[in-house]
Amino acid sequence: MTAIIIAGCSRSTGNDLLWLSDEEPDVKAEVVVDPDLDLINDGFIIQGGPRDRVIKAKTETGILYGRYALQRLEAIGKADCDLDIREEPSYERRILNHWDNLDNTVERGYAGWSIWHWGEPVPVELIKDYARLNASIGINGTVLNNVNATPEILSQEKLTRVAEIADILRPYGIKVYLSVNFSSPAVLGGLETSDPLITEVREWWSAKVADIYRLIPDFGGFLVKANSEGLPGPQDYGRTHSDGANMLADALAPYNGIVMWRAFVYSPKSPDRANQASEEFQPLDGEFRDNVLVQIKNGPVDFQPREPFSPLFGQMPHTQLMAEFQITQEYLGFSNHLVYLHPLFKECLDSDTYCEGPGSTIADITTGKTYPSVYKTTAIAGVANIGRDKNWCGHDFAQSSWYAFGRMAWNVNLSSEEIAREWLQQTFTSEQEFTDPVLDMMLTSREAAVDYMMPLGFHHIFAWTHHYGPEPWCEVPGARADWLPKYYHKADAEGVGFDRTRDGSCNVDHYHEPLASMYNSIDTCPEELLLWFHHVPWDYKMASGRTLWDEICLHYDRGIKTVQGYQKVWEEVRPYVDEVRWEAIRAKLAIQESDARWWRDACVQYFGEFSGMPIPDDVQRPERPLEELKKIKLDMKHHN
Ligand code: BDP
User: Is 302 marked active-site?
Assistant: First the structure.
């Protein structure tokens, strides 16, 4: 079996980096497969010293994970001693969600076209590389296509291709899942309806599922985005999300397949978009079959640089829940900005929902610890940042978030620092003169992005089509209000921010105490979420003693300075990095720094028109006039 580490991952074809060969695994260990071991299926044990090392597992896949783990230890210099390691994964299903379309574009993809090469010959070697990279970090599932799914994915022709991909992934322990369109029975099957309670519709799905399992006996199941952003769903027929999910679950149950039903929905009825998923889903708690998981984005709105956790995690004690994170940087500078995302992921998983009193974190709920009798399976999903670019992710450092997602899915307790350090060591070098400063860069990068984009609880003030740069002024006649920046920032002469308190949208009461009261009071609300929960006067005194307005300016300024610091670090570590990657990353950091100034120029000047207050003396002045910035138009819909 191959021993490959994800780090240094360039393509095996024409690569200039460190792929280890298939034929010569350099991990030396005796291997014992023992089905009677007292271990969770994918788990493994590594024992002994460098000369008498043993890897034990219940399954071949467990052995595979053990080998990768050992190789990782070797690569980071921690294998030259006696080992006694026992590892079991935190989640049973560790899944990437590709938002790949059948025309090979990738929704919110910034690393080139789809690696599945739909409609072209199957790129066997490429998919094998992909499989090894994922297996090396414990990922064991992949949804091949966009949640905005077309019925065509279930056509015979596409299923045949899906089966070919599944055959390549299987030896690496990776199962294939598909996103499905709820109208498939009508659109693809020619039925009059896709109503989930009509017998013909149920039979259509059962027959389709039987076809799939004939081709792919270990098929994982379906991911569904329904009644969201214009997609069809059970509500079109007066049915509920659970009616829809359960119909698919019944079709999949005979084969042990699952349904991941997304909670990313929002009805126009509720005045606060942050309330909408809870309002639709909480009443359905306990109504879902036991092979359904409700897949919830980390925040209640949409993958913003910082959101509080989605309160839905604490509201459905009788339903299996899973978290969805976005690895692709739709709202964090695409593949142009160096933003290591593990701190964002971990902030969510470590959040205490208090649903069963103190200590009911999202990690505990979704790994099944809080409600063990409810969870027959556990899962976690990350929206992939992978494309055909030679370095897979567009930015060399964007690989670290893919890596971190896998490592976190395997072990929720690993720290951001541990993961970043091992990634750096495997990807570049273990020289401390390199790893220390670059580690610091990675660990501060998410907060830097929050600072220069949306500090203090600002959210969704992006340009509305591509989500790249700032457009807090944006107005689009006829567009839904809750897609537009002004809906979120609500700046006026008095202040700025969305009032989600008990005097506003009451979103705070979607959280359990003590969070509800803590968020509700401006005095106790954490400053990093202040403008998320409160409409705050411009001259409000912050903990620092400065006004809100001054703090806003300072955060933008600090974000820029942090990125300028990264540029200096990168100059200094030049001797430790090959020229090609060094230059590519240098060029990206230059874009990031210039984008950070763009954000500052836009936001400080635009919000300054409302605050009417001067920019503090210790903050750099904006460079480009607002009128010029308002004219910037980017066409980045598909960044391929
Ligand atoms: C939004 C994206 C959109 C996705 C949607 C989703 O802008 O492209 O389709 O999320 O998650 O953030 O369904």
Answer: yes
CA distance linking residue 519 with residue 503, whole number of Å: 12
Distance separating the N- and C-terminal Cα atoms of the chain: 34
Q: Per the structure block, which two tokens stand in for 124?
A: 């066997």
The whole-number average pLDDT for the span 10-33 is 51
Atom 11 in ligand 1: residue holding the nearest Cα: 264
The reported pTM is: 0.96
Q: Which tokens go with 322?
A: 């899973």
8 Å CB contact between 375 and 320: yes
Is there a catalytic annotation at residue 513?
no
What's the 275 CA to ligand 1 centre distance in angstroms? 17
The mean predicted confidence, pLDDT, of the chain is 94
Share of the chain above pLDDT 70, in %: 95
Q: Determine the Cα–Cα distance for residues 169 and 572; give it in Å rounded to an integer.
A: 41
All domains of the chain in start order, with CATH: 2-87 (3.30.160), 93-427 (3.20.20.80), 455-498+535-639 (3.90.1330.10)
3-class DSSP state for residue 133?
A: helix
Q: Which residues partner with 352 through β-bridges?
A: 361
Torsion-angle region of residue 467: left (phi > 0), alpha (psi -120 to 50) or beta?
left
Peptide bond just before 514 cis, omega within 30 deg: yes
Alpha helices in 217-338 (DSSP H): 241-252, 273-281
In contact, 132 and 65? CB cutoff 8 Å: no
Residue-level pLDDT at 268 = 67
Selected catalytic residue, list 22, 82, 120, 229: 229
**pLDDT for position 13:** 32
**Tens of pLDDT along 455-491?**
999 999 998 888 999 999 998 888 888 889 999 999 9
93 pairs with which residues across the strands? 379
**Stretch 369-381: mean pLDDT, rounded?**
98
| Cβ(555)–Cβ(548) below 8 Å | no
What distance in Å separates the CA atoms of residue 520 and residue 543, rounded to the nearest whole number? 17
Q: Taking Cα atoms as reference points, which of 188, 203, 324 lies closest to residue 261?
A: 324
Quote the CA–CA distance of 165 and 186 in Å, as a whole number. 27
Please check the confidence at residue 448 and state whether its pLDDT lies above 60.
yes
pLDDT, position 466: 85
Strand partners, 361: 352
Residue 633 confidence class, pLDDT cut points 50, 70, 90: confident
Where does ligand 1 bind, in terms of residues with CB under 6 Å?
107-108, 147-148, 225, 264, 302-303, 330
Among residues 330, 471, 557, 601, the one annotated as catalytic is 330
Q: From the CA of 474, how far away is ligand 1's center (Å)?
A: 19
User: Is 60 a known active-site residue?
Assistant: no
The span from the CA of 619 to the CA of 554, in Å, is 6
Please write down the HEC assignment for all residues of 142-187: EECCCCCCCHHHHCHHHHHHHHHHHHHHHHHCCEEEEEECCCHHHH
Nearest to residue 566, comparing CAs of 594, 586, 596, 595?
A: 586
User: Which residue's entry shows tokens 């930015």?
Assistant: 395
